[in-house]
Amino acid sequence: MQKPRATVEQVTWRAIAFAAGSIATVGVRKAAAALWRAERHEDPPTQAAARGVAWRDALVWAVSVGVGAAIARVVAERGAAVAWNAATGVAPPIAQ
Fold first, then answer.
1. Mean pLDDT, the chain, integer
2. Are 85 and 92 in contact (CB under 8 A)?
């Protein structure tokens, strides 16, 4: 059975949601790095397998960035959905 083709609205919504989530994720990563540097006076452990990185630091960094990015993505996509609804008068076409 052939999968139905996506409409222009669905493709547009996917692009908007992707962009909003990506921008939010990059922002969180940069903010987390700035906070890490301010608190610890060193760069965050972006390479967890490096010799000089302690397990604790690697795990704290991974959890902080992962949770922060996930929350930011949800907030950004929900905000994009509100904006879509305000601009078009209908809810965004969520991909099934």
1. 91
2. yes
